[in-house]
Amino acid sequence: MKLFSNGLKGWKQSWSSDLRASISVAFIAIPLGLGIGLASGVPPLAALIPCVVGGLFICWISGGNIAVHSTPKMMIGVSAAAVVTLGGDDLFLGYRLLLAAIVVAGIIQFVLGLLRMGVVGDLIPATVIKSLLASVGVIIILKQYPVLLGAATDVSTNLGLLKALPTLLLQVNPVVFFIGLVSTIIMFAHSRIQFPIIKAIPAAVWVIIIAIGYSYALGFADGGSISFMSQTFSFGSEHLIDIPSEIRQSIVTPNFSMWQTGVFWNIVLAVVLISSIEGILSAKAIDRLDPLKRKSNVNKELSAIGIGTAISGLIGGLPVIPAIVATSVGVNHNGKSQLMDLFQALFILLCVVLLASQLQHIPLAALAGILIHTGYKLLNPREVLNIYRVGWDQISIFTITLIVTLTKDLIVGIAAGTVLTIVIHIIRLRSLGKLFTILFRPNVVSYQEDDDDSKFHISVKGYSNFLNYPRLKKALEVIPRNASINVDVSLAEFIDHTVMEHLAEYEEDHIRKGGQFEIIGLDTHHTFASHPLSVRFKGKSGAEQPNAKPLTSRQQKLQALATELHWNFDSGVIRFISSLVNFHMFRHRAIDRVYNKLTGIIEGGSILIKDADFHEGEFQTKVKMQTTVAIIGLNRNIPAFTIEQEHLFDRLAALAGYDDIDFKNFQKFSDDFRLKGENEQAVRAFFSNELLTFLESQIPYRIESNETSILVMSKNRIMSETEVRDLITFCTKLASIITSTAK
Amino acid sequence: MSVPFPFKTVATAIAFSPYAEANLHESVRIAKMLDAKLVLVHVGRETPQKVEQLELLVSQTDIDRDKVTIDFREGDPVRSILDSCKENKVDLLIAGAMKKENLLKFYTGSIARKLCRKAECSILLLTDRSVIRNKCKEIVVSGDNHDKTEGTVRTANYFGKVLGAEHITIIDEIDPKTGGNAADDDAELEATAHKRKELKKQEDERIAQLENKLEKDGSIPVGHKCIFGKPGYTIGHYAAANKADLLVMNSPDSSLGLMDRVFTHDLEYVLSDLPCCLMIVHQNEKTVA
């Protein structure tokens, strides 16, 4: 796989797709940014400044390869409280003091990056980080629901807002609440709608458009009132977002007067921590989205966002980090390089300058709807269930961190969660002294077993937890991309959940880049729960592995089908499988798990049918999907191509220059299907009349060839057993035609 | 370069415990395999009963009595043992680290460490899976870039032949800091991989010369590996992971003796977590016959 050069050379090739992608990115960045700004208790545009600063200044020095920059969502958890703590009643002063803290934090981050301290992000237990994200989700929902309802309130503490729910529900302002409710519904329902035109425009943009329309229709700007059920509800510009018409008014300089107080440095620490944590997490997640599978330099990025944060703070903006949501939108729209960042910054600037007067008409309740959706996604109930399944230790850490963060603040929450994790480990290890060995002794050795340059063996000994994970990480990092790695944990007496999770992530990344990875020696460990990522330990105590779950009726039918065909059926869950990532379809869609594998031999090759859970996008834009796919492994190579059903939108895309290969004698095929392939000549030669006739008369499947195998899938859902039978029939016939044409 | 073998005189500390007999049999066995004299050091006051008991124990073994010296010493255990070794011109001191006994604390606790640090002769620390009682298949020896290494490697070969070992692996530990450690992104990763390859080539040449010397001595099958890892720790972990039977390392450089926990070859790691039997080789003035 050829790596894109990151400088001007690469950019010259990708600028047009980056430009197109960045339009979508800007469209989603503006409402999100306004929302985050509002939720953070600062002027709304303060959250758009980081996007602009990031795009204009940071994209040149970034350690990432495709990262689009924005502001951390976790700031919401810190800044609203910080503004009050610093400024007391004078919110504007508090805001300016916060800016000073942001500038200082940025400088500190810059230094941390130079010192290669990016590894610090790994020193916080995985569950604590998840709990932090969930806490921010809860904080957002608590702070925004009054705005959604249109009920005014003075309460500012999280607990207070929770208690005030019944009271505020009664104070709902239907005029305001209506648009808030509609916005929320749009945000949640958008991903379910398959209609292409609706799908093409992001949910947040729909919300803005409809909300502005509503605001004009009712005349919010001028104010008014409606009588309804013998009550009068008034509405006015106080329910609209407050954006200055003069953009220059948004440029606010920091106030450094409190730099000698402890409170100030407390906030600096909080900003450094959350900005670095969310930044590093996002950078790693972005690497997984990179269609070219490059690795970003976390330390370089840390320094880069440090500079960006400092600049942003100097002109009134929130901190800068690489943003996972914005980047995933860009990649989904075919963006390829850092230029996306630059272009989105320019677009945002353009929109804000030109459309400021329109943006002023956005009702706050609509933004609240967007934010509540974001908060819900951060809360991620499914992940919470997953954490519960990993073990009682993890769910306790999660819950306690959550409660402490909500009642105190983020820093105390992180500290509490980390300390609790250490305490649980000490209890498990039954010794305090072992904790010292973890901190001060190496525990990893990495070598090549034979003289084969590409096979590595890593042995982990003793105790492995989040505190000494950097050692293991270092050993893994220096291994070249395509290498084959065996991680042997048979000498390890204790492996905590954070390390298990990091190993699973590394496994996925390494295989995605073309390497091989296996963990061996785990069979003799005991776990807290029967989850692959549960804490592992050796020792006398420990539960027996519980019995495998009984097969579902669909699984039983598939089992019967396998027996009938003399094939093999395996209902087990594999975390992911390498064969799927080699298809375009899954290049920027992350596969979560694969299960119910049917394998067999057919004429011309082998076939593998499995169910897969995967997702597109991240956080708010994350859409989870399921499907059943077939992979035909061929005995010979064929040209690479993709065939999919042609939609209305694709006709437009065709105008934009995507080549569709058509066949004059097969009008129906050419009309109904879109066939693409790099080597048109080879593709035309390959598609014999017999093949075209066969395909024309078939149920529309999406078919993709990557030269050695063919991927066949149809719906965005799991297939029934009958549909699987049809799929098998189709694939068998397809393979047989391909084989016979070869002769 | 002076090599410390052949071992002509071996010594062991003998105490009156349930394991004394087993301990003695082991020491006798190795003395016979080496065709060496045996010194039995007892730290404690010499009494006629003790002498009688010891004589009885010795007579129950099949070693010639005139090859055995019994030495009673009083005072600090470490000092006494070391003095006895010096006076009796001991080449190899054998210490047991059988985990079942409290001798574990005695030998692998501070006593063993002090012995290892201060001894002026080679030491063999025996764990539960003693290479004297059981078959020694695999020997791991340190091949670090150090003056003493040649002597140590040749000693490992010599001792391995005595024990009938099947294979020796020379482990060359390269400190990652010298080898290039940066791997923050793809470019750095490639640079590091390249640097490491260069270093490995140099080290391979050096080890090849070592292996030639072994050839001249007549060697057991030899292999080698260059591993990037913390010197002193890495070899111990490797030995554990590969189920080696005997680990042979250089003695610490005495010039650093004052700094308590600081060794050039950090035996500290290995001593605190013995992967298998351990031999620490001291160089001396003797030359190969």
Q: What would you say this structure looks like, in words?
A:
Chain A folds into three domains: 16-242 and 251-398, no CATH class; 441-537, 2-Layer Sandwich (Transcription Regulator spoIIAA); 553-742, no CATH class. Chain A is 52% helix and 15% strand. Chain A has 28 helices and 20 strands. Chain A has an eight-stranded antiparallel β-sheet with strand order 13-14-15-16-20-19-17-18. In chain A, strands 5-6-8-10 form a four-stranded mixed β-sheet. Mean pLDDT of chain A is 82; it is low at 540-548. Chain B has ten helices and ten strands. Helices cover 41% and strands 20% of the residues of chain B. The two termini of chain B are 13 Å apart. Chain B has a ten-stranded mixed β-sheet, with helices on both faces. Chain B is elongated, with a radius of gyration of 20 Å. Mean pLDDT of chain B is 82; it is low at 99-104 and 255-264. The A-B interface holds A 3, 63, 116, 118, 294-300, 441-448, 459, 461-462, 474, 477-478, 480-481, 488, 491 and B 176, 181-186, 188-190, 192-193, 196, 225, 227-230, 233-234, 237-238, 240-241, 269, 273.
Describe the structure concisely.
The complex is a heterodimer of chains A (743) and B (289). Chain A is α+β, with helices and mostly antiparallel strands.
Largest interface: A-B, 29 and 26 residues
Radius of gyration of chain A: 27 Å
- Approximately how much beta-strand content do the residues of chain A carry? 5-15%
- Put simply, the count of helices of chain B is 10
Strand order of the largest sheet of chain A: 13-14-15-16-20-19-17-18
The class by helix and strand makeup of chain A works out as alpha+beta
Low-confidence stretches of chain B: 99-104, 255-264
Mean pLDDT of chain B: 82
Tell me the major beta sheet of chain A. 8 strands, antiparallel
Helix content of chain B: 40-55%
Question: N- to C-terminal separation of chain B?
Answer: 13 Å
